[in-house]
From TrEMBL, chain A:
InterPro entries assigned: Epimerase_deHydtase (IPR001509), GDP_fucose/colitose_synth (IPR028614), NAD(P)-bd_dom_sf (IPR036291)
Source taxon at top rank: Eukaryota
Gene that this polypeptide is encoded by: GFUS
Domain NAD-dependent epimerase/dehydratase intervals: 14-251
EC identifiers of the protein: 1.1.1.271
Name of the protein in question: GDP-L-fucose synthase
Keyword terms, alphabetized: Isomerase, NADP, Oxidoreductase
Native source organism of the sequence: Esox lucius (Northern pike)
Pfam family, any one: Epimerase
Protein family per UniProt: Belongs to the NAD(P)-dependent epimerase/dehydratase family. Fucose synthase subfamily.
Recorded GO MF terms: GDP-L-fucose synthase activity; isomerase activity
Described purpose of this protein according to its UniProt entry: Catalyzes the two-step NADP-dependent conversion of GDP-4-dehydro-6-deoxy-D-mannose to GDP-fucose, involving an epimerase and a reductase reaction.
Associated pathway: Nucleotide-sugar biosynthesis; GDP-L-fucose biosynthesis via de novo pathway; GDP-L-fucose from GDP-alpha-D-mannose: step 2/2
Automatic annotation (TrEMBL), chain B:
Protein name: GDP-L-fucose synthase
HAMAP family: GDP_fucose_synth (MF_00956)
Record bears the keyword Signal: no
InterPro entries: Epimerase_deHydtase (IPR001509), GDP_fucose/colitose_synth (IPR028614), NAD(P)-bd_dom_sf (IPR036291)
Pathway(s) served: Nucleotide-sugar biosynthesis; GDP-L-fucose biosynthesis via de novo pathway; GDP-L-fucose from GDP-alpha-D-mannose: step 2/2
Protein purpose: Catalyzes the two-step NADP-dependent conversion of GDP-4-dehydro-6-deoxy-D-mannose to GDP-fucose, involving an epimerase and a reductase reaction.
EC number per UniProt: 1.1.1.271
Domain NAD-dependent epimerase/dehydratase: 48-285
Keyword Isomerase: yes
């Protein structure tokens, strides 16, 4: 795969907004510990303390300061189901401000690439399955988080508009399914389902109380480990040449119910108490099954870290290439092999327990 | 003193009909009841702020308010233009709203244009209109305006769709690519309305969806304006110069045209009587849809153009049709009578010829 947009001999200056969040930290880890930083390259990981991206002036200032050639745009106002339901207007407005400021600032410093981050929760509520990249705008999103959803959908509109009006702009976006991993927001009220379950199990274990799962446990989700997402993000940053977004996810067959996810958390955390389901609490969308066919076309051999334990999802075979040596294919296959066989949920739980005091919660 | 209770559209119509409004001076049907425009059971006079108050629709509302409805005691009607405030700037918008403290807002201000202008600048249409809409709605909310009626357009509906389109279909697919920037920005007004209603209890901000509007005070610029004023202006010039009237495109696309004065009358009804957050299409019926060719022929007839009419098929046609259902309007206002197309066209052409020097072109 030839990159005919980027001058690969020129070192990148990569700015990562939301650089200290769940995905940002994962990218930091992969860049430093796996890929390495090339000579002349610069990787800047912004946090909200560096600039308030809801403010156009501050955003422009930080972009002018760093003059990035590439941008990974992760910063957003995010939250789990219940936080979204309370504040759809804020989720809509704040995220539109952030996205508008970041994209325009990137354009003004002539960044050649911006990769933004969408989510499968933004797809139409009434839809056929599996959902794919062409379906983003084919109907209203689920009403629980329509503010966030529309703001994220509009990133795709921005990308098309920059491409349409500003010739040569190939800003694009990825669409992960439910992300989890170290450095997540483990706040029970405002966080997402998996870190919420982990935190609840931790507390329930300490207090000898039941683990109460909100909702019926029947909704289904595909979970992607933050480190896998980070590896794929880096591939998209330099190799993926479309304005159309790309779904980054495990396959449809890896979809699990919230109940199965809760049981996996119980097992990994060695929780011995009772597990109950509070069915008075909202379930959110029943499913958001996404197709990763496009990813598989580009990266047929990419292996995801197993969710729980046991078998790898795909056979690792005998190839020994790494991503950084292979530009003809998404050669991220065996980065995982170079690390100990990892169990994504276990790593996340271990991290949480070890970093309980400092973890966001 | 007018009875303060909910009026029906029938009475509104009758009030309009009693007025001898008509450029050609015709007296229309007699009426026998007087409607009540009060916003609520309380007797607080309205302070109505109209953004885009000097544009095509704004001028029509000015006319209808002053010449037909009349301004009640204690009421205030403020028609803003771009010289009063740059609504793309949050500070200026807030300032003008704080100054006037409106109880009601008719939000017409937007960056608008015909097919060819949109095709050149989708990014600008998207961003500028999002800024305007965000600033106006938030400023209105902050001064506790009880009603904001924004203005969408049938051109924002999904390109791939069944016909006739109706109010429930706005988000059911991507809009036509020629003006996707404008379309998404307008669609997001509906998201704003839903979000204000969702998060800020009691907010019933809403929107109307007119089809192609035309009338006096339009933008008659041939390059940037809409099709009907463009045809009128071209016919005027062609007549003067003895050259052909060149219609851009094949002439086959179909449109429903609504006279600006009819739209204004309906806007005033919506402002005080329409109580839904969901938008409402304001249009003549589907059977009134005409082709661009038929519209051109009507212009030729009204302008008494004697020269040749040709069709430049190298130019883009835009969307083939956008046939909208006015069933919801008809449920609310079964007896509202639209000004006949040729009559409305004549009034518009007469106005243009009489005001050629000062007309926007």
């Amino acid at each position: 795969m030839e990159d005919n947009i980027l001058d690969q001999s020129a070192p990148m200056r990569v700015l990562v907004t939301g650089g200290t969040g769940l995905v940002g930290r994962a990218i930091q880890h992969v860049v430093r510990e796996e890929r390495g930083i090339r000579e002349g390259e610069e990787w800047i990981f912004l946090s909200s303390t560096d600039a308030n991206l809801m403010d156009a002036g501050e955003t422009r200032e930080v972009f002018q300061k760093h003059q990035p050639t590439h941008v990974i745009h992760l910063a957003a106002m995010v939250g789990g189901l219940f936080k979204n339901m309370r504040a759809n207007l804020d989720f809509w407005r704040n995220n539109i401000y952030i996205n508008d400021n970041v994209l325009q600032a990137a354009h003004e410093v002539d960044a050649v690439r911006v990769v933004s981050c969408l989510s499968t929760c933004i797809f139409p509520d009434k839809t056929t399955y599996p959902i794919d990249e062409t379906m983003i705008h084919n109907g209203p999103p689920h009403k629980s988080n329509f503010g966030y959803s529309y703001a994220k959908r509009m990133l795709d509109v921005y990308n098309r508009a920059y491409h349409d009006q500003e010739r040569g702009r190939f800003y694009t976006a990825v669409i992960p399914t439910n992300v989890f991993g170290p450095h997540d927001n483990f706040n029970i009220k405002d966080g997402h389902v998996l870190p919420g379950l982990i935190h609840k199990a931790y507390i329930a274990q300490k207090e000898g109380s039941p683990l109460v799962v909100w909702g019926s446990g029947t909704p289904r989700r595909q979970f992607i480990y933050s480190l896998d997402l980070a590896r794929l993000f880096l591939w998209v940053l330099t190799e993926y040449q479309e304005v159309e977004p790309i779904i980054l996810s495990v396959g449809e067959e890896e979809e699990v119910s919230i109940k199965e996810a809760a049981e996996a958390v119980v097992e990994v955390m060695r929780f011995k108490g009772q597990v109950t389901y509070d069915t008075t609490k909202a379930d959110g969308q029943f499913k958001k099954t996404a197709s990763n066919a496009k990813l598989r076309q580009y990266c047929p051999s990419f292996t995801f870290t197993p969710f729980k334990q046991g078998t790898f999802i795909h056979s690792t075979g005998n190839l020994r290439k790494t991503f950084w040596e292979n530009s003809g294919e998404c050669g991220l296959v065996f980065t995982v092999c170079l690390v100990l066989p990892s169990i994504a949920l276990k790593e996340t739980c271990d991290w949480f327990v070890a970093n309980y005091d400092s973890a966001r919660k």
